[in-house]
Design a protein that fits this description.
Helix content: 40-55%
Strand order of the largest sheet: 1-9-8-5-4-2-3
Shape: globular
Number of strands: 11
Oligomer: single chain
Structural class: alpha/beta
Bound molecules: pyridoxal-5'-phosphate
Largest sheet: 7 strands, mixed
Strand content: 5-15%
Distance between the termini: 23 Å
Mean pLDDT: 92
Length: about 425
Amino acid sequence: MRIGRTLPPAASPLTFRDLMSGMRALFAGSIELERRHQDLRTYFGTKHCFLVSSGKAALTLILRALRELHPDRDQVLIPAFACYSIPSAITRAGLQVQLCDIDLTTLDFDYDQLENKLANPRLLCVLPIHLFGLPADIDRLKQLRRDPAVYIVEDAAQAMGGEWQGKKLGTQGELGFFSLGRGKALTAVAGGIIITDDDSLAGSLARHTAALPECSPGTIVKQVVSALALMLLLRPGLFWLPKAMPFLRLGETHYDPNFPMHRFSTFQAGLLAGMEEKIGRLRRTRREHIRFWLKNFSNSIVEKKTAMTNKTVHQDPPDLLRFPVHMPSCQVVDQLLAASEQAGLGLARTYPDAIHGIVQLNGQFAGQEFPNARRATQELVTVPVHGFLTVRDRTQLLHLYAQQPKEAQPTCTTSNG
Ligand SMILES: *Cc1c(COP(=O)(O)O)cnc(C)c1O
């Protein structure tokens, strides 16, 4: 355990001003919630917007609304390299997870495999993910989708404020959702946003969100305490403290369909006051670091991805929450992470395993293999790009990286265990 300066892998800070604005909103009541809905509709340029307790809750409500329109369809297609919240929400909505492998050079769907998987009469929707803020290729997905009954639900949980070819991420599919959790692009302690232009879906979503319970007073107290903790403990000078407390389970990913679902509180709405300006400020800070990492990491997924569209990645880099780097083997990842842990530099793994490796889903994917997704969980590390990162941290990180072998070592075992 390290005591002393430690960087979080990702961080979207809350300030004292945010906290005060949250407290004021507690007393102002629902008017502040109404204002935030309006802000979000304007920001995304969409007709409808819904705020709920988490990204998982947002996805669950989306799936329930879609299922009402298509009761005969019960499967949801997702990349096998994904956040465990996604299968948790799919199970919660009473639906089945279908997997497609990824392309290791883009972390997006393997589009050759996707085409067949889309031709499935039981498929309700497909979920492209803008992982780390890397834009998924929605245009290509639209070309491959022959069946208009299959909805595109954009998981932009990690990509709020990001853009691709002039369009805001989350606005290209029939529906999009975002997370306001800790460590996302913008945080309200927790929270989820749904956006859509579709009136009939919006009608159904309005009914489902209205049916959610209000935030209990106990939950609001917890939110205030969490906001205070985020304000104080996310700073590198103190982050070692919560990190050393195992019961907080920081940075861990769980599969758990029994997550709480409730409405967004007025306190949370207050935390988001002035969000547009704040998103812009956080993006500018991250962008400077992203440019630096792009110059210094040759083995860059970001570069490969954007090269496909002939964009000059250095001029206009995508807005990333964490900068992914593909290492030559899992042994190198282990060494690098151990070194980073000692120095408190915030390097992190992505997910413990691919979705088909989740024990609780065991059996659902028997006989299916998604080797690239599994390799991504073993061989990727992410480098911080947030505002707590200093020039000195960057130099130290590059130094650590330079000490690692660049050649593949003996191969990893096939499972993370
Ligand atoms: C965080 C995240 C979610 C879920 O959001 P929560 O607010 O944590 O429930 C979904 N998808 C992706 C890709 C995420 O990173």
